[in-house]
Amino acid sequence: MTVRRTHIVGAGVAGLSAALAVTADGGAAVVYEAAPQPGGRCRTLQPADGFIHDNGTHVLFTANGRTLDLLEVIGARDRWFEPEPKGLPLYDGRTGEIQRVGLSPWSWLFPSRRPHGLTLPDLARILRLVFTAKDCPVASIIGDRPIMDSLIEPLTVAVLNTPPAQASSQRLACALRRLIRPGAGRLLVARNGLSEDLIEPAVATLTARGAAVHTGQRLRRLLTSQERVIGLALPDRTVMLGPEDRVILALPPYEVGRLLPALPVPTSFEPILNVHYRMKGLASPRFIGFSGTLAQWALVRPSHVSVTVSAADAVMDHHVDDVAARIWSDIAPALRRLGLDAETGRQPESRVVKEKRATIRQAAEELPQPPLRPLTNLALAGDWIGSLPATIESAVMAGEHAASLLRHVRCSRQTAPRDRPLKTENAA
């Protein structure tokens, strides 16, 4: 009996999600990853000097139901916890003040959890944003109000990795509508790290199901015939597909464009810069947000502090030492408020990680979107697909959707590819 395999190219979150979906009901899957380790942009770096840290400060919300379900499947749900159950500490770099802000709009009913300076007119504008029917820049709805600087700008940049003057109101609204649900606004972080608490358990689950994950295998070319993939040209070999085999490309859009140049894909991207300070942190991870500073947030771990600058175009060409010094000067007072030994004039050892094409530019414009099943036996997956912001949740959903698109396809028949849209609005 011929085994029907799904060949998944890319072992980031979308690819691993697709592989887990394929193997959930006994299907066979093989995963190919170009990098030396799985995880994509969601991984832990382990350099030779022993300074181990994640590539960035990825977080989840309890609104991210599909990701939480995946964590249950791989036995890692208890590794993600809420570091700030009383509300997010938000430090204002302009005033030096720090307050705890509720991440769910329902918590703003309590004055102590309400963003500083929030007024009734502000709430009306935020409601317009949440239920906007026409896509437009976020800034055009909120306007030049104090709440823009203290809440909306850092929120927009953190969620969409795009400045409010360009950022899509509909994409941000889609995320905010999910946070409105009762209990959906709790922020979660990995207790130990992204690889240990997400990627490694996912790979272990796949291995237990008989799936293989091959690293160092960049797909050079797709071999196609009669609207279907017949082979994968890898660096050291060519894998020929069986008549009922399937392929999922869980890759960023520029890689999809390289392999399938006729497809329309997004071509504009936004960078993210992370600075990791090697220092004694706190026994349990903490999380803090910033406004009026270059950075948007920081994750404090026992051995280091990781700081994120989203939409980081303005500093991507700056020398790493200058960027690390500027950010340290901004955030040291806030870290002291959390109980860390953080003197402004005594910067610890640091490492800067720049990702020039971290996400697509999620602007208020019609983005090129290819068909999700461009060939009879091939589907696409990635955090850039669908109407949600480019996050772990959107990657998980896209991977599952790609697997479902191919589940009942008879690949040996000459059937025209058909799309089924990725539904994001009502996803739990």
Overall description:
The chain is built from 10 helices and 20 strands. By secondary structure, it is of the alpha/beta class. Among the domains are: 44-82 and 188-193 and 269-360, Polyamine Oxidase, Chain A, domain 2; 104-185, no CATH class. It has a 7-stranded mixed beta sheet, with helices on both faces. Strands 10-2-1-14-20 form a 5-stranded parallel beta sheet, covered by helices on one side. Helix 1 packs parallel to helix 7 and helix 2 packs across helix 10. Residues 1-24 form the signal peptide. Keywords: Signal. This is Protoporphyrinogen oxidase. Residues 13-404 form the Amine oxidase domain.
Short structural summary:
This protein is α/β, with parallel strands linked by helices and 428 residues long. Among the domains are: 44-82 and 188-193 and 269-360, Polyamine Oxidase, Chain A, domain 2 (Alpha-Beta Complex); 104-185, no CATH class. The chain is built from ten helices and 20 strands.
